[in-house]
Amino acid sequence: MAEFELIEKFFKNNGGRADVILGIGDDCAVVQVPPQHQLAITTDTLISGVHFPVDTSPYDIGYKSLAVNLSDLAAMGATPAWVTLALTLPEADENWLIEFCRGFFTLAKQFGMELIGGDLTRGPLSITVQAQGFLPEGKALRRCGAKAGDLIFVTNTLGDAGFALREKILEDRLNRPEPRVRVGEKLLGIASAAIDISDGLAADLGHILKSSHMGATIIVDHLPLSAALKKSVSADKAISFALNSGDDYELCFTVSPENENLISQISHDTNVSITCIGKITSQKTFTLQFENGKTYDGKITGYQHF
Ligand code: ADP
Ligand code: MG
């Protein structure tokens, strides 16, 4: 199949959004941003053997390449709208493309996104996605807004994806992260700072602390751990996975104590568990301790930026 036939067959005519003036087929896509809104734009490349194991299924590659970008939109509180896809393939394998598209468009549909353009080239397998979403003017959830006394929350459980990389269980948590888009949207005007956890909690919370010029105290026995992870490793190891391993794509965000009561409603409305794991401090240190006050002295590996 020639390049244009492939584009026609696999990528054209999806979504049907009214704000896409011109989709796939011309030199550029042309789109309409709603009044009083701004565009949030993010891009991520996934390279075979680097960002996913070489034996990952094409479905999971399609799913994850969009999911990691959606997670960035979620971390800003943006509502997903449009996406472009630059695909480099070693060969035009139609069965591979069918499965890739199944994974990609399952997620695109779930969040009402339309694929509006892209590129197709031959070479070692690599996928670059750019996702765009809407934000009400001036409302983006940034990394720099955390204040002393704010509570620190995370969605769902941590450490499962990192564990899946080593042990070949919990693989859905590695290959099919659920971008917390609906949580992010509801945090607009409520959270003071937010980030998605791609490099591990310690590293990513570190970005919030650095941007906000703050420190934090984390209660390590409050870190949310899945039953599967707790069953598989010691309590200490599980905490270490939760702090240091990446690829979870959960959200970490901060909330002033006045807004604390709104979080359980968001958790209820989105059906995503949300756990308070600590507090922002004006003292610029990163303190890890147990509930009983004892210091946690395990190693922090992902934490490089503070
Ligand atoms: P150009 O040469 O002008 O860059 P292309 O020939 O690369 O355009 O692509 C033709 C059309 O198909 C464009 O609208 C482009 O956005 C779209 N397209 C190409 N590859 C993809 C892809 N992998 N997914 C979605 N759209 C694509
Ligand atoms: Mg052109």
Describe what is shown at a glance.
The chain has 306 residues and is α+β, with helices and mostly antiparallel strands. Helices cover 34% and strands 27% of the residues.
Structure description:
With 306 residues, the protein is of the alpha+beta class. It is built from ten helices and twelve strands. The protein has helices at residues 3-11, 58-76, 94-110, 160-167, 171-175, 181-187, 201-212, 227-232, 235-244, 260-270; strands spanning 20-22, 30-31, 37-47, 79-89, 114-122, 126-136, 151-155, 191-197, 215-219, 250-255, 274-281, 286-289. It has a six-stranded mixed sheet, with helices on both faces. Strands 3-6-4-5 form a four-stranded mixed sheet. A two-stranded antiparallel ribbon has the order 1-2. Helix 2 (58-76) runs parallel beside helix 3 (94-110) and helix 2 (58-76) packs parallel to helix 6. It is globular and about 65 Å long. It starts with a helix and ends in a 17-residue tail after the last strand. The mean pLDDT is 95. The structure holds adenosine-5'-diphosphate and magnesium ion. Adenosine-5'-diphosphate is lined by residues 7, 11, 24-27, 85, 87, 115, 117-120.
Number of helices: 10
Structural class determined from secondary elements: alpha+beta
SSE string, helix = H, strand = E?
HEEEHEHEEEHHHEHEHHEHEE
Q: Going across the major beta sheet, what is the strand order?
A: 8-10-7-11-9-12
Helix content: 25-40%
Number of strands: 12
Which distinct ligands sit in these coordinates?
A: adenosine-5'-diphosphate, magnesium ion
Q: Give the CA-CA distance, first to last residue.
A: 51 Å
Rg calculated over all Cα atoms? 20 Å
Largest sheet: 6 strands, mixed
| Overall shape | globular
- Let me know the average pLDDT: 95
- Report the portion of residues in β strands: 25-35%
Low-confidence stretches: none
